[in-house]
């Protein structure tokens, strides 16, 4: 038995307990990547670093025995700084995209790879739902978007990019008046948000406020909502498409006040008084205060959607009393541009060889290379990167390691670039007595996990494959057909 | 032609080394020796007939650069890139060889499969820098221009390998007069073997009846090849930097032929030689060294000899001689009291009545002596012994750590080669003290002679009853064998070393549990460095007090250093602790070259740091060196002068630790890599101010959070260089290299002093200088590779560097 203190909690740790065990006992969670109960401490990632205030030493909690008289600091400034540096190193080495380059560049953050996977699987309901959820005006954008996503599509460096805009446009038009796309809103709050201006940014902001549970009223000086887009010739944007998508905003519960120019027809003060927050989505000048937010309209429509969504996020944080910097911004690791010599190795195993320019939605969707990560939620590296404030984007301070081809073994995918060399899968296959197993190859910065004698991944992982995928702390090992969606 | 892959041979090897996982490295070494690479079918065979798993094979083979999976050429060229060789241009030599063999990118073997070239870290011939080893022949002082000749010469001589260092037997018993010559690896590389042949020829030709005696290292590597002539009743004469053709005169001068016919012949030959030789030479006056006169006296007399006692006198392989000079006396004292102590060489051991020591008393004696581990960290030896002695366990192991991986250090190699019995005696004493019965010598495979000599010495000791079930006839049993390391710096780390002995990938694990409690195969294990063990017999024989009288408050006794770099007299030295860095450089090393100034001394190799000239008054002392940001390390002392760039040298050390990092823990694997990238940028002229800050932050992270000693100490060179020579780093950011060393900042030009002799154009390797006889030459900066050859060859100093 050892008597020690974890932060402020005094505890008795059992015989042979580690500092990590003791912290768990005290109800304190220390981040770990390479530690797994059944495989024991690997002591490779060093993320579980803690400080013993008694001795002043820092050490990994997973493999240090809890001793009498220790006073462990698990989240002090120095500890967090060290952890941040170690995570930074891991991320510097990390070669993988949390989100596809297409989604990353989309100002409205449409989850394109997932939408394409649904289309490829024939689940058009789900695909259209994602398009609606993320773009709010997916059919309108299907006609008018400048599609920055298609310019970054990696498929483009082999043949032609996926026609993403056409895809979300076409499926959305099919679902224009379809109740299958029910968007779930959070439980209602008693807050009201006023949006001045009913352009795409204003309406997107209003939509997102409603989704977040707040009541919302939109003021428009014209007689119709979104007057600017109505001037477009019908062959460019059929009026019924825009009309239907505006109607969906109204149907969700947004209150439209038309023919009402704030500051002329209605005093600004009154609008401010009647609402808990104000989003300005037009040229009106409003003196700044903590409850005033802006959502800038933009001729690039998808950017206007993005502005509207961002304004709504800030309003939501304000209304819930959260600090503005607490708005969750998911960490997004990015490979960046592929070097010429990397293109082929990146595409191996990803490329779905359909040669002719495909006509059907399905044939087009299956051309996607699925650059995004299949474990975006459970990846601990991503979680900690976010938690320790390293995101949303990390400036690489080290030359990026070359992209290695993705390996497939049955249902399992292995992306070497995402591996943190923790050795858990090696230990699992060894304990399971797999005939080949997996192992480390090379050393230092060049070490990587491989199957002995260059054999296939499926042979190496054997019957332990599923266990390895579940235990892998990052997206290095994932299941081809099992996507985390939450 | 590659040897055919015969699976029966694989079966034989496995049968010889055993089927256990711990046999994996010896098996792989044997296979590689046979096939020159490791063919997949042979590896699969190993897995199918032994307990070695495919995962183990893959992870071990790919870890050690010694092993290769693709066929290699018939001969292997190893270009030493140890510190001393690096400073003296090893990278250029490597490039020259690559060019000569017409190798493409990522190729290491020429088209005809004759040569495979690779860089190795330290052949331990630092004083012959730059050195190249082709198979077993070592060439010293190689330069880019002699590369083609070296390769031709090698091929011409492959029919009869002359310098095969490992194929040798032990010498005959002592005769009266003798000619002493050192035949350790570095001396052989310096040409000692040719000298020995020449002497032998003279002796046979004139029937002189004098014996040639191979002796232990004198440490004066800057004077090799060296011979010493000992005639009873006369003062010994030492000849340095001799040539084979000198031997006739030297030998005949000391040993005039007795027979009339021989006398006449000798006179005639000498007369003829004088007649035909290009120059009238009188080798005796030219080469003789007098130990009583400076500078030899300063080189030798500032030294104290414990680990290298009887240097240059005894035959390393002669057990009786070792015993006559006090060997195994200490062991005798340590064996159980009241038991009959006897062995084959008993007569040689002086019969002095000495007070016997119990195991506890041995440890007490070591404690009183103040001996600390000589491997680097300086952990008190007695405490380690006590821990292992107290640890519960039927089986205990004792490991002699001879995995000297520090580039620029070769103390352990020299001690193993020159004083094998001393190390063995120290090890047996340790085994008595801690109650261990199994010992392992872990020696780098790059040290074939050390391996051969320890193996031979172990066999002789066993035969003499010094090893075995009854050590010297007592009830103490102790056996030991040699394990050849496969070349990984991290194996110097205790837990990695154990992992590799167990046949696992050598990755360290956190301590505790310490090996003293949970070591090899889970048993209590004592791991001591070669030098530490070599100190033990002396301490027991002369008493703890005698040892403790030498040195400083916290660092007792002596320390062996490999002195190299920009110093006039490099070599292997043993000095009392407390000697200042200045004394070592000036008195022993003779200072830097005339016209140069001392800039810094890099102590402790890649784990240590540099001590700037202004701190040269620092004593050699564990704490003093650590407080200056350096460390004792294993004992490499590299002297740097004003022409060395601190940024470049720091990059060199970091490149070493980065490639040696095992890759297990994040800080060392990624951190060291990032640090190296920054240093590369600085040397290439693209570094920024932020880079410097980043470098400092990273150094702290790597130092504090790495798993093992390699990572903890890797940033030391960076931190000390930044602390003492920050201005050099800042200059690199501003686009200048203060030492005019980093090629990215250099521009070569030719002044009007040029006489148009075309020498520079002839030597330029990149055709950057067009041949324009009798006109001032010009350098095409686009083509210039900044090698500096033109600067060296210009007879009128018309080449300018900015």
Q: Largest interface here, residues on each chain?
A: A-B, 45 and 40 residues
The count of domains of chain B is 6
Question: What is the architecture of the largest domain in chain A at the second tier of CATH?
Answer: 3-Layer(bba) Sandwich
| The CATH C-level class name of the largest domain in chain A | Alpha Beta
- The proportion of residues forming helix of chain A, as a percent range, comes to 25-40%
Shape of chain A: globular
CATH architecture of the largest domain in chain B: 3-Layer(aba) Sandwich
| Number of beta-strand segments of chain B | 20
Number of helices of chain B: 33
* Low-confidence residue ranges of chain B: 161-175, 278-286
N-to-C CA distance of chain A = 42 Å
| Mean pLDDT figure of chain B | 87
Give the helix tally of chain A.
19
Distance from N terminus to C terminus of chain B (CA atoms, Å) equals 50 Å
Kindly provide the radius of gyration of chain B, computed on alpha-carbon positions and rounded to a whole number of angstroms: 27 Å
User: How many domains make up the coordinates of chain A?
Assistant: 4
Radius of gyration of chain A: 26 Å
Structural class designation of chain A? alpha/beta
How does the helix and strand content of chain B classify structurally? alpha/beta
Average pLDDT across residues of chain A?
92
Q: Provide the low-confidence segments of chain A as ranges.
A: none
Give an overview in words:
The complex is a heterodimer of chains A (486) and B (802). Chain A is an alpha/beta fold and 486 residues long. Chain A has four domains: 2-75, Roll (Ubiquitin-like (UB roll)), CATH 3.10.20; 101-180 and 337-365, no CATH class; 183-322, FAD/NAD(P)-binding domain (3-Layer(bba) Sandwich); 399-479, Alpha-Beta Plaits (2-Layer Sandwich), CATH 3.30.70.20. Chain A is built from 19 helices and 15 strands. The longest helix of chain A has 19 residues, at 301-319. Chain A is globular, with a radius of gyration of 26 Å. The model of chain A has no long low-confidence stretch (mean pLDDT 92). In chain B, 40% of the residues lie in helices and 12% in strands. Chain B has six domains: 7-63, no CATH class; 75-157, 3-Layer(aba) Sandwich (Glutaredoxin); 178-290, Glutaredoxin, CATH 3.40.30; 319-548, NADH-ubiquinone oxidoreductase 51kDa subunit (Rossmann fold, 3-Layer(aba) Sandwich), CATH 3.40.50; 558-733, Ubiquitin-like (UB roll), CATH 3.10.20.600; 746-802, Alpha-Beta Plaits. In chain B, a hairpin with a 6-residue loop joins β7 and β8. Chain B starts with 6 loop residues before the first helix and ends with a strand. Chain B is α/β, with parallel strands linked by helices and 802 residues long. In chain B, the strands form five sheets. In chain B, strands 6-5-7-8-9 form a five-stranded mixed beta sheet. In chain B, α19 packs across α22 (530-542). Chains A and B meet through β4, α2, α17 and β13 of A and α3, α4, α26, α27 and α28 of B.
């Amino acid at each position: 038995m050892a008597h020690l203190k974890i932060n402020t909690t005094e505890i008795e740790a059992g015989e042979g307990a580690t500092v990590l065990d003791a912290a768990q006992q005290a109800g304190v969670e220390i981040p770990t990547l390479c530690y797994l109960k059944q495989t024991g401490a690997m002591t490779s990632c060093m993320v579980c670093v803690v400080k013993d205030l008694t001795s002043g030493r820092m050490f990994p909690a997973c493999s240090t025995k809890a001793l009498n008289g220790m006073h462990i600091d698990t989240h002090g400034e120095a500890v967090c700084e060290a952890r941040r540096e170690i995570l930074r190193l891991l991320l510097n080495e990390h070669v993988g995209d949390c989100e596809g380059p297409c989604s990353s560049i989309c100002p409205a953050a449409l989850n394109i790879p997932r939408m394409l996977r649904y289309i490829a699987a024939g689940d058009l309901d789900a695909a259209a739902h994602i398009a609606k959820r993320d773009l709010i005006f997916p059919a309108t954008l299907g006609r008018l978007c400048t599609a920055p996503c298609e310019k970054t599509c990696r498929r483009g460096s082999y043949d032609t990019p996926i026609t993403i805009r056409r895809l979300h446009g076409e499926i959305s038009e099919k679902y224009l008046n379809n109740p299958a796309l029910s968007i779930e809103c959070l439980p209602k709050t008693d807050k009201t948000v006023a949006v001045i201006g009913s352009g795409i940014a204003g309406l997107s902001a209003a939509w997102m406020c409603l989704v977040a549970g707040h009541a919302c009223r939109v003021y428009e000086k014209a007689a119709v909502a979104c007057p600017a887009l109505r001037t477009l010739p019908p062959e460019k944007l059929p009026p019924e498409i825009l009309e239907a998508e505006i109607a969906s905003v109204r149907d969700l519960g947004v209150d439209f006040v038309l023919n009402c120019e704030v500051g002329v027809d209605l005093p600004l003060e009154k609008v401010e008084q009647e609402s808990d927050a104000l989003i300005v989505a037009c040229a009106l000048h409003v003196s700044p205060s903590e409850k005033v937010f802006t959502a800038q309209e933009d001729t690039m429509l998808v950017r206007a959607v993005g502005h509207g969504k961002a304004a709504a996020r800030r309003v939501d944080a304000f209304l819930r009393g959260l600090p503005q910097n607490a708005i969750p911004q998911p960490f997004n690791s990015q490979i960046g541009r592929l070097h010429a010599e990397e293109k082929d190795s990146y595409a191996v195993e990803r490329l779905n060889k359909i040669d002719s320019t495909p006509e059907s939605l399905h044939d087009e969707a299956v051309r996607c290379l699925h650059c995004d990560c299949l474990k975006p939620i459970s990846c601990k590296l991503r979680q900690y990167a976010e938690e320790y404030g390293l995101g949303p984007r990390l400036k690489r301070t080290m030359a990026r390691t070359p992209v290695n081809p993705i390996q497939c073994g049955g249902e399992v995918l292995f992306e070497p670039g995402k591996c943190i060399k923790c050795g858990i899968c090696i230990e699992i296959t060894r304990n399971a007595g797999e005939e080949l197993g997996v192992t480390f190859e090379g050393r230092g910065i060049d070490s990587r996990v491989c199957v002995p004698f260059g054999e296939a991944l499926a042979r190496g992982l054997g019957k332990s494959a599923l266990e390895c995928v579940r235990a892998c702390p990052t997206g290095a090992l994932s299941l081809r057909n099992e996507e985390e969606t939450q | 032609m590659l040897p055919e892959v015969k699976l029966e041979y694989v079966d034989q090897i496995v049968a010889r080394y055993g089927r256990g996982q711990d046999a994996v490295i010896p098996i792989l070494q044997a296979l590689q020796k046979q096939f020159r690479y490791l063919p997949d079918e042979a590896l699969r065979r190993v897995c199918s007939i032994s307990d070695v798993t495919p995962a183990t094979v893959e992870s071990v083979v790919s870890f050690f650069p010694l092993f290769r999976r693709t066929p290699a050429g018939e001969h292997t060229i190893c270009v030493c890139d140890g510190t001393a060789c690096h400073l003296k241009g090893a990278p250029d030599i490597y490039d020259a060889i690559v060019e000569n063999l017409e190798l493409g990118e990522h190729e290491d073997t020429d088209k005809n499969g004759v040569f495979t070239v690779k860089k190795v870290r330290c052949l331990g011939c630092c004083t012959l820098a730059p050195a190249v080893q082709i198979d077993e022949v070592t060439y010293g002082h190689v330069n880019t221009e002699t590369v083609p000749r070296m390769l031709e010469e090698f091929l011409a001589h492959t029919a009869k390998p002359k310098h095969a260092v490992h194929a040798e037997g032990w010498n005959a018993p002592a005769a009266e007069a003798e000619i002493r010559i050192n035949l350790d690896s570095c001396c052989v590389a310096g040409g000692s073997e040719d000298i020995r042949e020449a002497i032998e020829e003279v002796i046979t030709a004139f029937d002189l009846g004098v014996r040639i005696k191979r002796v232990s290292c004198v440490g004066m590597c800057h004077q090799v090849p060296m011979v010493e002539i000992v005639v009873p009743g006369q003062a010994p004469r030492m000849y340095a930097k001799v040539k084979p053709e000198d031997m006739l005169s030297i030998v005949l001068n000391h040993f005039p032929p007795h027979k009339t016919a021989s006398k006449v012949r000798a006179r005639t030959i000498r007369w003829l030689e004088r007649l035909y030789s290009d120059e009238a030479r009188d080798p005796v006056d030219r080469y003789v060294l007098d130990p009583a006169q400076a500078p030899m006296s300063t080189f030798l007399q500032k030294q104290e000899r414990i680990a290298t006692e009887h240097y240059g006198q005894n035959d390393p392989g002669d057990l009786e001689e070792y015993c006559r000079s006090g060997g195994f006396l200490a062991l005798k004292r340590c064996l159980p009291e009241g038991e009959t102590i006897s062995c084959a060489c008993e007569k040689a051991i002086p019969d002095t009545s000495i007070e016997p020591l119990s195991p506890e008393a041995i440890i007490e004696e070591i404690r009183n002596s103040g001996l600390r581990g000589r491997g680097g960290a300086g952990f008190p030896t007695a405490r380690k012994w006590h821990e292992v002695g107290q640890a519960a366990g039927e089986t205990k192991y004792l490991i002699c750590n001879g995995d000297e991986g520090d580039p620029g250090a070769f103390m352990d190699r020299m001690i193993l080669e020159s004083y094998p019995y001393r190390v063995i005696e120290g090890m047996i004493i340790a085994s008595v003290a801690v109650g261990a019965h199994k010992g392992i010598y872990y020696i780098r495979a790059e040290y074939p002679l050390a391996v051969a000599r320890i193996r031979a010495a172990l066999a002789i000791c066993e035969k003499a009853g010094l090893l075995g079930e009854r050590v010297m006839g007592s009830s103490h049993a102790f056996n030991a064998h040699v394990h050849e390391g496969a070349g990984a710096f991290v194996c110097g780390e205790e837990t990695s070393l154990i992992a590799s002995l167990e046949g696992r990938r050598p990755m360290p694990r956190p301590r505790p549990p310490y090996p003293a409690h949970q070591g090899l195969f889970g048993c209590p294990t004592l791991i001591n460095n070669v030098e530490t063990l070599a100190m033990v017999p002396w301490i027991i024989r002369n008493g703890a007090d005698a040892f403790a009288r030498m040195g400083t408050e916290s660092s007792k006794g002596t320390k062996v250093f490999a002195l190299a770099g920009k110093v006039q007299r490099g070599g292997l030295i043993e000095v009392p602790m407390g000697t200042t860095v200045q004394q070592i450089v000036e008195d022993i090393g003779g200072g830097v070259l005339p016209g140069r100034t001392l800039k810094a001394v890099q102590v402790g190799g890649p784990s240590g740091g540099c001590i700037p000239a202004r701190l040269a008054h620092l004593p050699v002392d564990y704490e003093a060196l650590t407080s200056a940001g350096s460390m004792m390390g294993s004992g490499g002392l590299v002297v740097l002068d004003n022409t060395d760039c601190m940024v470049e040298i720091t990059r060199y050390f970091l490149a070493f630790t980065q490639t040696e990092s095992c890759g297990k823990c994040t800080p060392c694997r990624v951190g060291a890599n990032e640090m190296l990238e920054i240093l590369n940028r600085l040397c290439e002229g693209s570094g920024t101010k932020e880079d410097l800050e980043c470098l400092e932050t990273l150094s702290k992270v790597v130092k504090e959070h790495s798993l093992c000693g390699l990572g903890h100490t890797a940033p030391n060179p960076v931190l000390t260089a930044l602390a003492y020579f920050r201005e050099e780093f800042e200059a690199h950011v501003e686009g200048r290299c203060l030492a005019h060393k980093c090629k990215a900042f250099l521009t070569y030009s030719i002044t009007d002093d040029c006489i148009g002799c075309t020498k520079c154009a002839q030597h330029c390797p990149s055709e950057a200088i067009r041949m324009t006889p009798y006109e001032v030459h010009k350098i095409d900066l686009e083509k210039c590779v900044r090698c500096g050859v033109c600067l060296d060859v210009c007879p009128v100093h018309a080449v300018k560097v900015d």
